[in-house]
Every structure is written in structure tokens, then in C-alpha cells.
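Reopening: C-alpha cells for the flavin-adenine dinucleotide complex, inputs below.
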Amino acid sequence: MEKRELVIIGAGPAGLTAAIYGRRAGLDVLILEKGLAGGQINITDEIENWPGVPHSTGADLAKSFKDHAAKFQPEFRDVAVESIKLERGSKIVVTDKGEIEGEALIVATGASFRRLGCPGEAKLIGRGVSYCAVCDAAFFQDAEVAVIGGGNTAVEEALYLTQFASKVYVIHRRDTFRADKVPVERALASDKIVPVFDSVVESINGEEMVEGLTLKNVKTGEISELPVEGVFVFVGTEPNVSFLGESQLRRSRGGWIITDENMETSEEGVFAAGDVRDKVLRQVVTAAADGAIAAMAAYAAVTEQQYLHDRLFKPEFTVVLFTSSIDEKQVRLASDAESWAKDKGLPLTLVDGYRFRRMTEKLGVETLPAALLLASGEVRQRVSLTDVTDLAPLFEKK
Ligand SMILES: Cc1cc2nc3c(=O)[nH]c(=O)nc-3n(C[C@H](O)[C@H](O)[C@H](O)COP(=O)(O)OP(=O)(O)OC[C@H]3O[C@@H](n4cnc5c(N)ncnc54)[C@H](O)[C@@H]3O)c2cc1C
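Re-run output (same inputs, fresh job):
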């Protein structure tokens, strides 16, 4: 099977940034993309909050992300990932064109906004129809806009929009908002927010740009027209995780992948970056930052595995001393043990059990310091140390 050091799934801002950082760190990087490199920004009309570039079209920014990553020569492959297999430490990506094993994986498959699915919506995306107030609110200075939805995101984004728009209609199919009490109270107190309850959108109207909405009252069946210049749809967002099995990678409600601050998921060596993560702000800048962190953490994981594999698992016999680099006494013990072994001409491998915690745990070392005799990676004997001379029996066992 094809084997690669780092396999990145998704070539949006998170995946492309991860590719840049991964390649610059010297990793062999394969990046898998089923659509257009650049991800969601390809369907973004204008972007003015990517630092250093005051204004760009989404398509131009997507191209410059792709060109920048290509400069460092990762391999791009045009495939759809169908599943991943995580068994006994191996990480296999199953695509529509074959399987690839990665020493580390970064899942950067992004998210999709749920659409209303009404006439006019698809045609007017980026032309007044938006799914992101933080991204697009500034384009609606003193305009009348509509927010569709009644949950927390809809109400909070409506409040955000009041800083720009002259009036914000909030259209909700029920007779009360589903959102939490505090944002609802703040929204209802705003003289710019006008709730439109019991109503659904029949169509979004306009030729070149949004001009208005056709609404239907779900209780009376009455049809009405609402002239607005912008429509912000907040009826939900979903992570792109359909290729993951039910119980693969720990996820929050809604399916978002949970990571630690190094972007590592519940599975060792599998990282997630960008919109697919459980996080508070889904933007290009946060996706790129996640990608950079994930790539550096993946680099550390790959080199750690390679280093430890060569030192601990390859030799027929090896005696390993695990100490903690943050404990002064143990640092001294490691140094004494090194001199002791050198004097006696004994090959001793020193491992910082604090830094290489996962490997230490994998070998069943619960407390530091500890020493093991390994035979082709299998633990033959273990001792807890009080003095360097406690190492001697391990060398005799060989
Ligand atoms: C209309 C719109 C306007 C926006 N405006 C702004 C803005 O002004 N400023 C801003 O900062 N952010 C904006 N955003 C948000 C921003 O685009 C996202 O936060 C960002 O693109 C997330 O990057 P990502 O790499 O995590 O995911 P994505 O950009 O979603 O990229 C994920 C990639 O993974 C690929 N993929 C998914 N599944 C698979 C699979 N199974 N196999 C292979 N490939 C797969 C997808 O095809 C996609 O290319 C906007 C988003 C939208 C939709």
C-alpha cells in the first residue's frame, strides 16, 4: 500500500496552510481534495478580513492559497475520501482511487452551511445572500436586511448586523425564538430588529442582486413581499464528516471534531483543522492558524515516531531508561546513568519520558524514572530505579 508521512484531507485554507507548514518542516505531504482547491472561499464573493490583504475576491484568494502551497511542492491529488481506517495505530485513508497509509493525518474537510433550498437562493449567493454575518455584514451599511432562523446563531448574528444595517428582519417559522434568553432579550430590545414570526421564505427575489423575499405565514397561509438588500441564512451548519464512522474521532453535538490545543483528535497522530473542528469562530484566518498548528504537531508526531521506532523497536535488544526532563533529580540520574553505561561500555538508550509521554505510556511505564529491557520492541523486563546500578541486571538478561 502507498505510504506517506503526512496525508491532509481537504485543500481549503486549513489544509493548504498545513501543506505549507508540513513541507517547510521537511515532511512528505500528500493533500487530497475532491473539489476545487481553496475550499469555501471559492464561493465567497469578497473577503476583507484576511490580514495583509485589505480586499480580495474569494476566487483570487483561493488561487493565491493554492499557488503558495504549490510552491513548496506537496503532492495534490484529485480524489474523494470515502472513509478512514484506524486500527492498532495505523491510519489508512480510503479514497475513490485507492488506499493510502499516513504516519499522520490532518482532517481539514471544512463545513457546509445548510441551505434553505428555496428558489433564488443558489443564484444569489454572494449577491446579497450570505451565510456569514462576520464576513459580509460590512457590505450592508444602512441597508435593510433579513436574517432567516430562530436559534442562537441567527439571533446573535442579527444583533451583530445591527451595527451596520438600518433594519434587520428576523424571519422564523415558529412564534418564539429558540435561542437563549439573554440574546433574545437583547434582540427584542433593539429598535433595529424586527421579528417576523410564523413565517417561511418561499423565494429570494432579484435578478443581479437580492431585491426582496416572498414570505408565507405558516398559520394563515398568507403570502407577502419583503423588500431587503441582504439575506443572511442561519438554519444550521454541518461539518463535512460523512466519511467518518459513527464512533471515529470524538465529536461534539452536531458532529464537530474535538481536538486539543495541538489540533490532535482523540486518535493519536490524527489531527483536525479548520471549520470541521469544534470551535467558536469559523473564518479563513482561524482555519489557516489551525492548519499551521496541526502541521507542526503532525511533524512532531511523525519525527517522534520515527526516532523512537529506530531507537526502541528496531534493535534486537536495547536497555532504555525513561526519566523526566522537568525533574532535576531525574535529569541528574539520566546524566549519571549515561556516564555509568559509558564507563562500562554498555549501550543505554535515554528517553525523556515527559516529552515522549505517549510512547512511555504505550510501553506500560506508569511512573518515572523507569528502565526497560526491550527485545525487538517487546518488553522483556522492567525495573524502577533508585540508583544507576539498578540498571546492571537488565544488561545481564540480554
Ligand atoms: C459564502 C461564504 C462567505 C464567507 N466569507 C468569509 C469571509 O469574508 N472571511 C472569512 O474569513 N471567512 C469567510 N467564510 C468562511 C471561510 O470560507 C471558512 O471559514 C474557511 O474556508 C474554512 O476553511 P477550511 O479549510 O476549514 O474548510 P473549507 O474551506 O470548507 O475547505 C475544505 C475542503 O475540503 C474538501 N473536502 C471535504 N470533504 C472531502 C472529502 N471527503 N474528500 C476530499 N476533500 C474533501 C472540500 O472540497 C473543501 O475544498 C465564508 C464562507 C462562506 C461559505
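The chain has three domains: 2-111+237-309, 129-233, 315-397. The two ends are 36 Å apart (CA to CA). Marking as resolved unless the reporter disagrees.
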